[in-house]
UniProtKB/TrEMBL annotation:
Keywords for the protein's UniProt record, in alphabetical order: Allosteric enzyme, ATP-binding, Glycosyltransferase, GTP-binding, Kinase, Multifunctional enzyme, Nucleotide-binding, Transferase
TM helices/strands, residue ranges: none
Designated name of the protein: Uridine kinase
EC top class, as a word: transferase
Pfam families to which the protein is assigned, alphabetical: PRK, UPRTase
Catalytic activity: cytidine + ATP = CMP + ADP + H(+); uridine + ATP = UMP + ADP + H(+)
Lineage per the UniProt record: Eukaryota, Viridiplantae, Streptophyta, Embryophyta, Tracheophyta
Requisite cofactors: Mg(2+)
CDD domains: PRTases_typeI, UMPK
Recorded family membership: Belongs to the uridine kinase family. Belongs to the UPRTase family.
Pathway: Pyrimidine metabolism; UMP biosynthesis via salvage pathway; UMP from uridine: step 1/1; Pyrimidine metabolism; UMP biosynthesis via salvage pathway; UMP from uracil: step 1/1; Pyrimidine metabolism; CTP biosynthesis via salvage pathway; CTP from cytidine: step 1/3
Native source species: Durio zibethinus (Durian)
Length: 488
């Protein structure tokens, strides 16, 4: 069966020039950490009619928040000539030589490197690929390669991140195959039985069954095995959701990506969006980040009696907390925090942005409603107003964009000077650059960072790439949305 489920096309981070990640100031290891995520390739093998397609369909359905494509090994069957077709019943379609594995490898290489491919559509009635059409398969988060012999060839196996073998009894497979081939593939009962005895069963014993030992997961009962499918989907989600930096720094948390979240990011990163929509979708995202961040606060157990007189064993929120926004863009996160935590106290820190560690860096920064403010000196604390008992509280530090980490470092340093324990600081961002994450995590390993996306890198002008521009200006309407947009 030929299936495909595709969403947006193109490679991850499309439109970015790889060379732009390699700025002179990037530490060598950053390049590795910032490399775009490779698609996750899953191989699904098993005997004919064991339920491979059914298992793949279920995995795809459950992974609905990710772009998933299915590639069938059947698409890479070598086509029979007109002459060969006349005696197709003598052809062994279950032998590895029946497939064009070189073409399959080329297709998987391309998909893994983020390119889209044209996959042939195989016609089981004519025993050859259709000459009139191809199927376009776009680069995706997850590629599922399904077929009787996908675990047979070592070169194909080595490209896989996960190998699955679908198991079913031989009689079950045969019964299903008779059904399917007579109904869908235009075969007679006699031809199915003959092919089974002559080719299908021997090839299963010689090639398919021996490849089972390479599987990471064996699924008995195929598509009916909900527990196995749930576990597989859970594993894939974990692997996909984890940015490399989250593996390096335990305290970095990226909220789980969904199409809704990507959609919101797509809107707020679009330079053409109007201010109203920018604020609307930023607010939605901020609210999610804030809710996620609150999830890291401690709680105490609490029981209540429900209106039915039953006991509900629940928990009570942590009461000793406050917000601190890094002015100005951090103020955009205050409403969401107030909406989630009734009566929460929110302090402010204003930092003059500049170079770091004594280095003189000149770049342009906008502050408040002033137009442009050239800076040529180190970060400087301009203003702070914090709750007096802040050392007793958990602190949700607010800044939508973590770029160099200079402001964050200074703000956290100030909180530590006020005796806030490092482990009681939760830093909330919408987007974070790896450089900023490294800086914060290196200096303050116990500070938790919660963000909705980690971007690729900082540009030579210290702007987050791909980023979303000056967040504060876009949110508070102090940039010039009315000006015509000019091409770079
Ligand atoms: N658990 C099941 N119970 C009943 N029929 C099934 C089950 N799993 C698959 N089938 C049927 O068996 C046939 C082969 O299943 P499929 O998933 O296409 O197998 P494969 O891709 O391994 O050849 C299909 O007609 C399918 O509807
Ligand atoms: N022209 C062909 C090509 C393949 N087959 C059989 O299909 C089986 C593989 O497909 P599944 O969906 O069952 O995995 C394989 O066992 C071939 O015998 C065919 O009959 N005719």
């Amino acid at each position: 069966m030929d299936h495909v489920m595709q969403a947006a096309s193109g490679a991850h981070f499309s439109g970015l020039r790889p060379e732009s990640f390699h700025s002179a100031k990037s530490a060598p290891q950053l390049v590795e950490h910032n490399a775009p995520k490779q698609p996750f390739l899953i191989g699904v093998s098993g005997g004919s009619a064991s339920g491979k397609t059914t298992v793949c369909d279920k995995i795809i359905q459950q992974l609905h928040d990710h772009r998933v494509v299915l590639v069938n090994q059947d698409s890479f069957y070598r086509g029979l000539t007109d002459e060969e077709e006349k005696c197709a019943h003598e052809f062994n379609f279950d032998h590895p030589d029946a497939f064009d594995t070189e073409q399959l490898l080329e297709c998987i290489f391309k998909l893994k490197s983020g390119q889209s491919v044209h996959v042939p559509i195989y016609d089981f009635k004519k025993h050859r690929p259709r000459s009139d059409s191809f199927r376009q398969v776009n680069a995706s988060d997850v590629i599922i390669l399904e077929g009787i012999l996908v675990l047979h060839d070592q070169r194909v196996r080595e490209l896989m991140n996960m190998k699955i073998f679908v198991d079913a009894d031989a009689d079950v497979r045969l019964a299903r195959r008779i059904n399917r081939d007579t109904v869908e593939r235009g075969r007679t009962l006699q031809s199915v039985l003959e092919q089974y005895g002559k080719f299908v069963k021997p090839a299963f014993d010689d090639f398919i069954l021996p490849s089972k030992k390479f599987a990471d997961v064996i699924i008995p009962r195929g598509g009916e095995n909900h527990v196995a499918i749930d576990l597989i989907v859970q594993h894939i989600r974990t692997k996909l959701g984890q940015h490399n930096l989250c593996k390096i720094y335990q305290n970095v948390n990226v909220i789980q990506s969904t199409f809704q979240i990507r959609g919101m990011h797509t809107l707020i990163r679009d330079r053409q969006i109007n201010k109203h929509d920018f604020v609307f979708y930023s607010d939605r995202l901020i609210r999610l980040v804030v809710e996620h961040g609150l999830g890291y606060l401690p709680f105490t157990e609490k029981q209540v009696i429900t209106p039915t007189g039953s006991v509900y064993a629940g928990v009570e929120f942590c009461k000793k907390l406050c917000g601190v926004s890094i002015v100005r863009s951090g103020e955009s996160m205050e409403n969401a925090l107030r909406a989630c935590c009734k009566g929460i106290r929110i302090g402010k820190i204003l930092i003059h942005r500049g170079g770091d560690d004594g280095k003189q860096v000149t770049f342009i920064c906008r502050i408040g409603i002033h137009p442009y403010f050239p800076l040529a000196f180190r970060n400087q604390l301009i203003y702070e107003k914090l709750p007096k008992d802040i050392s007793q509280r958990h602190v949700l530090l607010l800044d939508p964009v973590l770029a160099t980490g200079n402001s964050a470092k200074q703000a956290i340093q100030l909180l530590l000077e006020k005796d806030v324990p490092e482990s009681k600081i939760i830093f909330l961002n919408l987007i974070s650059a790896p450089e900023g994450i490294h800086r914060v995590c290196k200096h303050f390993p116990s500070v938790k960072i919660v963000t909705s996306e980690i971007d690729i890198a900082l540009s030579d002008e210290f702007r987050v790439i791909p980023g979303m521009g000056e967040f504060g200006d876009r949110y508070f309407g102090t940039d010039d949305f009315s000006l015509p947009i000019q091409d770079d």
